[in-house]
Amino acid sequence: MQNNGKIKKHIPQRTCIGCREEKDKSELLRLTAGSDGSVTPDESMRAQGRGAYICKNVGCLEKAIKTKAIDRALKLSSGKVDCERLIEYFKVNFGEERKAD
Ligand SMILES: [Zn+2]
After folding, report:
1. Distance 20 CA to ligand 1 centre (A)
2. Non-local CB neighbours of 19 within 8 Å, separated by 6+ positions
3. Is 39 strand, coil or helix?
4. 19 vs 7, 8, 50, 65, CA distance in Å?
5. Please, what sign has the CA dihedral across residues 65, 67, 68, 74?
6. Element (H or E) spanning 67, and its range?
7. Which residues on neighbouring strands pair with residue 32, listed in sequence order?
8. Which pLDDT value is given to residue 68?
9. How remote is the CA of residue 67 from the centroid of ligand 1, in Å?
10. 20 three-state secondary structure
11. Domain-wise residue ranges, the chain
12. May I ask the CATH class of domain 13-94?
């Protein structure tokens, strides 16, 4: 019996908590909640515990913060998310959205 051609790999899809779009897991960043309620970007994508996925752009992060999607996805009591640090991380790593003016 012959194997006809390529074996299709199933790419896991995850929903961004900012724009609610489904994307390949590899295109998203995983966020995890620490025991102290802090939210940390999980660059290894393998950290233990609850995770939330988000696009690698500041716009989606801001949307997720505004709608408290992070709090909900990670089951945090709202107000505990360290937004400033996350926004800073996104800006440094994924660039700030620039508007031509
Ligand atoms: Zn998004």
Report:
1. 6
2. 55, 59, 60, 63
3. strand
4. 31, 28, 20, 11
5. negative
6. none
7. 40, 51
8. 92
9. 13
10. coil
11. 13-94
12. alpha beta
**Measured in angstroms, how far is the CA atom of residue 24 from the centroid of ligand 1?**
11
Angle at 36 between CA 27 and CA 45, to 5 degrees: 20
pTM for the whole thing? 0.80
Type of residue found at 79: G
Cβ 93 vs Cβ 49: under 8 Å: no
pLDDT digits (tens, 9 = 90+) for 28-87: 999 998 777 788 999 888 888 889 999 999 999 999 999 999 999 998 876 667 788 899
| Structure-token pair, residue 77 | 């009591």
Bridge partners of 15, per DSSP, are 22
Expressed in angstroms and rounded, the spacing between residue 85 Cα and the centre of ligand 1 is: 19
